Write the structure tokens for this entry.
Amino acid sequence: MQEFAEWFPTEIACREYLAVVRWGASFVCPRCESTRAWHMSRGTCRCTQCHHEVSVTAGTTFQDSHVPLRIWFQALWCVVSQKHGVSALGLARALGIKRYETAWKLLMKIRSAMIRPNRERLSGLVEVDEVFLGGVRARIGGRSPIRKVLILVAAEDTGHGIGRIRIRIIPSATLVSLNAAMREMIEPGSTVRTDGWSGYQGVVRNGYRHIVVKHESSNPGDDPTPLVHRIASLLKRWLLGTHQGGTHHGHTQLYLDEFVFRFNRRTSRSRGKLFYRLIQHMTADQHMQGG
């Protein structure tokens, strides 16, 4: 934390770092692609060739934000430096933010940047299953998501553990919903391992090899998708431990994205690299947001 404070002691230092992450070693004008600019006193850069003036935060998550970049950076550092993350209340306390809503909005925008646009899909041997999140499941037939959030979990089986994972909310466990989610998460040509649920009958037609592991009726404790259920257990424990189960229903996918971000980088020893990656994602045009 001391080293972080030395790196970013002022708003200017934060802007300079943001410029390096966004443009590299030198400024690049978005209009004429010139690499020469004047640095203006109000924190913008004016191209020496076409005189176009641009802010380093323009077209990024930070654009039009009333929160200083130093607070943004401190919030990002809190997120990546804590192994299990931080709640909005914990972030507000750590940074001295008076309004809970401000801390909550910061976290929501940070979470929205955790998933890189056009990221690679899972490949190899991938285990897939649906899991319910939420309260007591309604006693009805089939796999209905009534009164719960239904998610699809996909996990790479490396042969000696779990590789990368993906998690998506799905409207139902029907063939149409499952096919759409798997096409988004898994590279064609991969091998998909599922249980015997009829909703997975379209796996082969989507260009995957399919392994079906059915429940053994003679062994009620048998688990055909153990990797998925291990991830689901960790996810539920994380939601209860870090957020005390107090996630906002309409933003559940953002919490899932944070869990995926953390799980897929669980072996990374460099907090600074995770901080850099998040800054990269937040300066991409795809993540531009108001506020």
Observations:
- The radius of gyration is 22 Å.
- The chain has a mean pLDDT of 85.
- The chain is about 35% helix and 15% strand.
